[in-house]
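Sharing a chain and its predicted structure for anyone who wants a worked example. Both blocks are below, sequence first, tokens second.
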Amino acid sequence: MGELGYVVKLAAGSRALVIVLQFLCNHFVPDHEADAFRSPLVKLEQARWSSGDNLVHYLFEGLNRWDSQYFTHIAQFGYTYEHLVAFFPFLPWLMALTSQILQDIFGTVLNPSSWILISGVLISNISFVLSAVVLYHLTRLLFIDRHFPLKVTQLYCFNPASIFFSSCYTESLFAFLTYSGLFLLEKDFDTLATIFFAASSITRSNATLIPIFYLFKIRQRFNRGKYYFGLIMRMVLACAGNVAVQLYFWERFCFPHPRTQFPEAVHTYADRLNYKIVGDEALEWCFNLIPLSYSYVQAKYWNVGLLKYWEMKQMPNFVLAMPILVLISHFCRSEHYRRLQRYCVHAVILCCIFVFFANVQVSTRVIMSATPLPFWAAASAKNPTLVWAYFIWYFFVGIFLHSNFLPWT
């Protein structure tokens, strides 16, 4: 078996382990009654679930927690509530498409929510295996040590945020698209790289930082007196998806739509939790000079803003995020900085956003899906035992907590 075959088997095996462990944790430990979003329409559908539906949810419900609830709801019912615009549409669209294909093949043996859940789990775990392969090739391209890519891939397969890379989250899909774009950009396949980056920009908001890599390449070409205007155009197109998503939300939430398009359960749930429903009326952010829905709902529903998270009660979350921040900081102050400056600048800006603006506890999973640098840093560490202890501890604890609706990174 060659190295590439080993990478595929390791990645697939690690996902199988996560799926088995989440089932065991979810089966033997009672769920925490979290104050989290749960789709009211799935609850309505639950009354007509078959034994097959119950089995699907019994097996995979530990992968349908927290943000997964948003993505599965959007995939099945669309953007019904204002705060759902924090979740970009590419993953839900793929889930809906895959679910429809499965229904066309197997018929109505399961209800839609079961096919949606199966689709989300399939997409995340297949994307993870593909992202591991791309990470291996990208690392081989940038590092001379022939053993280094395997060390990096091993760490990636058991990374601290592993549960999110198997759940119905965007982490695996975004990692695959972003790592692929980076690899293609390094290989000078600029147009193909732009296509992958454009797809990543309708997957997660932090794709807006992708132009950093183009700017470094533009500077490099400028210094060599080479043509770079086409690269500027590709840089714009690489993050155009973010603009397209905002325009889509602007049309959906800022103009009248028939109230009758949703069942009464949607409105009852909205009234109970004070949610705004699409189409009821133009929302507050619609009248801003630049009507950006994302920044508005992040501030309103998740307290995102400059130093807003700097409270004593949030100290445990800063401690939880500290290892990834220290790894990146140490790596980017080492001899690797000059050679990998573009990756360091990108990663450090991401870290600063989470430390000073966003919910810091999510930095581990978001940064690890947005850049390969944490894994290069971990594989380069002088104390690999300590690094592996951190990775494995977070790997198991994360699965246990997340699958039982307890907060994690």
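Comments welcome. Residues 3-246+306-403 form one domain.
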